[in-house]
Amino acid sequence: MGRYDGRVAVITGAARGIGFGTAQRFAAEGASVAILDLDEASAQEAAARIETIGDARAIGVGCDVADGAAAEAAVQRVVDELGGIHVLVNNAGITRDNLLFKMTEEDWDLVMNVHLKGAFNMTKAAQKHFVEQRYGKILNLSSVSALGNRGQANYSAAKMGVQGFTRTLGIELGPFGINANAIAPGFIATEMTDATAARVKMSVEDFRAAAAEANPVKRVGFPEDIAAAAAFLCSDEASYITGQTLYVDGGAKLG
Ligand code: NAP
Q: What integer is the mean pLDDT of 112-126?
């Protein structure tokens, strides 16, 4: 008997990284999962890997979350193919880092469109079903960068925006049996942080070692660390928690 038996969880940007780790965790706890990602073939390949976990059911759906019509169609496809929707994890993300004076308008818009508009589009599409059934769990991915990070004016603004969005969802949707929370990860070892290593001209190993050394718990985080917190926040055990942002960062923001 798993905490997510009979539940359908939709996770965006889940072909790899934190999203994939979270999908694996929900599946291991009994959920049917829908892997949404830009590239349908990658999403389906990830779903096939999830289906090797016990008797988990998983589908892969190609969807650009920044496109409202695509988000709406993807949610409907999940409901049609998996029989409903109970959990939405807004995880899809990109970085386009640069110092403010070099940041282009396009890079500002791209980051806002994926993180903020993407979360808005997906949540709007899912909430109709959640409100109707008087049940739903929304989890948004923020970041420690919400507190400010050199070279990430676009990303930090989007990630703090995610926190305000989450609080507002908590207020508006609470009366309908819907919880909305956010997780703000610190350094998590994924292709996103590997790409940052390349940008600052460090090897992945050295970059991770430096991040671990600077962290109070002396290690970097892994997708499993976020997945464990996600599985709690989207469970019925957390039904009195809403509108919150949980920093899962090894205490990094304390420094
Ligand atoms: P990742 O490894 O780069 O994976 C992100 C996934 O999102 C990719 O599969 C990507 O697809 C997909 N994606 C990008 N744009 C999309 C769109 N418009 N529609 C649908 N899917 C899209 O990133 P991650 O490290 O797992 O990060 C996941 C989330 O956690 C992000 O929101 C990120 O900002 C946040 N976060 C990460 C860290 C960290 O240290 N890793 C820290 C704090 C917060 P493509 O491969 O096709 O681009």
A: 98
